[in-house]
Amino acid sequence: QVQLVESGGGLVQTGGSLKISCTASRSMNSGNTMGWYRQISGKDRELVALIDDGGTKTYQNFAKDRFTISRDNAKNTVDLQMNSLKPEDTGVYYCQARWLFNIYWGQGIQVTVTS
Fold first, then answer.
1. How confident is the model at residue 40 (pLDDT cuts 50, 70, 90)?
2. DSSP class of 31
3. CA–CA separation, 91 vs 94, rounded Å?
4. Which residues contact residue 20 at a Cβ distance below 8 angstroms, ignoring those fewer than 6 apart?
5. Would you state the pLDDT for residue 31?
């Protein structure tokens, strides 16, 4: 079992930056992927970015030029640096880990971008 805890969300103005972080409760052996999803009000949860334990990254189109995902395997953390934020980025951001055919989710963290 893996617990994921997000931190770093909050309020930011349009054009600003915010970094959110996720810490896993245990180390996961090779073959895992960690990432971020988000749910905007009234919409389905959507992928933001993924990073596997080898460092290969996948971004949704809206995130490619503004967001950067990174991880520290020694600390069991995954971060999402978000720049040039827009009001439409407002939502709940969820950390996800995939390991040994299981999918784990964090509780979600609110990111609000004001205009």
1. very high
2. S
3. 10
4. 6, 7, 8, 9, 36, 79, 80, 82, 93, 109, 111
5. 83
Angle at 54 between CA 80 and CA 100, to 5 degrees: 90
Asked if 96 contacts 102 with a C-beta cutoff of 8 angstroms, the reply is: no
Q: Average pLDDT of 77-96? A: 98
Tokens 């949704």 found at? 60
Token look-up 């520290």 returns: 72
Q: How far is CA 110 from the centre of its chain?
A: 12
Residue of 57, 59, 55 lying closest to 47 (CA atoms): 59
Q: What is the pLDDT of residues 46-74, one digit of tens each?
A: 999 999 999 999 999 999 999 999 999 99
